[in-house]
Amino acid sequence: MGNTVNAKDATYSNTIGEPNLAAFWQDPDFDAERKAFYYVRVIEIPTPRWTTFDAKVFGVDIPEGANTWIDERAYTSPIWYMPTG
């Protein structure tokens, strides 16, 4: 994945990644006799970190060693499978 964060201006461009995702996945180890749960985890494109925004807003230097960007994550609610019987 790329990174379009401009730390000096505390901006980024939403020109990378995909706006939509469609997939089919089948659990190769599925056992109808056992409980299971599934969820999806996605990584968003890099955006400026809060310290980068603060440095821009307050006109100060970004702290030495601080990351200027962050990859946020999103998780779906789980899907639970319960065997019957």
Question: Care to describe what's here?
Answer:
7% of the residues are buried. The protein contains 1 helix and 6 strands, in the order E-E-E-H-E-E-E. The radius of gyration is 20 Å and the shape is elongated. It has one helix spanning 50-58, and strands spanning 36-38, 41-43, 47-48, 69-70, 73-75, 79-81. The chain has one domain. The chain is an alpha+beta fold and 85 residues long. 11% of the residues lie in helices and 19% in strands.
Write the layout of secondary structure elements.
Elements (H helix, E strand, L loop, with lengths): L35 E3 L2 E3 L3 E2 L1 H9 L10 E2 L2 E3 L3 E3 L4
Antiparallel strand pairs: 1-6, 2-5, 3-4
Helix content: 10-25%
Characterize the main sheet. 2 strands, antiparallel
Structure classification: alpha+beta
What's the order of the H and E elements? EEEHEEE
Report the sheet-strand fraction: 15-25%
Radius of gyration: 20 Å
Rounded mean pLDDT is 93
Terminal-residue CA separation: 45 Å
Total number of distinct structural domains: 1
What topology, given as strand order, has the largest sheet?
Answer: 1-6
Count of separate DSSP helical elements: 1
- The total count of strands amounts to 6
